[in-house]
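Now for our target.
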Amino acid sequence: MLSVCKRTRKTVTGDEEGRGDLCLLPLDIIVEILKKLPAKSLVRFRSVSKQWSTIIVSRRDFIESIVVRHPPPKLPIFIFHHCVPETFFTVSPVFSPTTTDNVVTIPRPHHPSSFHYQYSRGLICCSSSESHQVTIYNPTTRQVFPLPEIQAPPGLSSCFFGYDPITNQYKVLSIIINCDEQKLTYHVFTLGCQQSWRKVKGIDEDSYPNDYSVCIDGTIYYSAYRKSREALLLSFDIRSERFDRILVPKALSEAMLTPLDYQRLVNHLGKLGCICCNGGDTSIWIMDDPEKQEWSRTILCLPNYPLDLLGADVDTFTGATPAGEIYATQCKYYFDKSLYVYYYDMNQNSFRRVHIEGGVRDKTNKRRCCVKVFAIHDHVENTMWL
């Protein structure tokens, strides 16, 4: 018996037809096409398929290509920390006092000034010295990831954040000081590998960390002090989770005893640097050889308190750009004047300033609160999913 089958035609929309054609392409061709797309489009295309989502948010070679495909922008982006009516921060190249977009709300401590921000390879770490709460934010994907609270006795905490290019891991180091017993505990959280903090062995029970740090090639450097009025420079290797003490010249150790507002650790052209302002003199120390821990010092040819002469509301320089300029940001903005970033070129011995768009003087603003400003000069896009 001869059977006859009736063929039916399916109507295919343009979107389905295009998607079908794209799926016929080899995977390596699809990956190369995705690498050419803007980061905002990649974030949207996560929903196309599980395969695409895996490629975009977790495939190491793909994420690396997105991170390095564009050089850092010449102009920085900023973290604007607001305290009224609630505690939140925004990330943008321009300032808006009434912004409602891309707002990241965070728990409010007793003292809003206790918040600290650290940036590493596309991710921002927000922490407070008053609590054990830490939040990670990815400006590219706009994902907010609150870390679980550290199970430790109440006390002050210092939080440090960095990335290791060998293991492709981000880690958060939190050092908690039990003020009653005067003891320190050390805790580490690895992004993407665990959902809890691990307690690790520290370096010295008598060293109390400061809040400023810098991460260079998988090593977090931070300053500390002893009650005997001795300044220390310590390091934490992200891969091995080992602490070490960095040897520094006596003159640098003495300069590090000045108030924290007058010193900063910086990444200066890939080398560890320390900017110190002491008695009107500004100098930068560079560790030229990490293995031998050899340092050089450059005294900057600046007038006494040069930033004061420029009308900046800052006490010292706050970082270094990828090009080697050192810069200062008006860390606290009270809406009473225009908002600027100040740059100093050590080779040219010259100053320049850049106006932050949106930061203009507002005589009608009577609020006593201020907005804290943090500049990021080496920002890169990163599609990693937290």
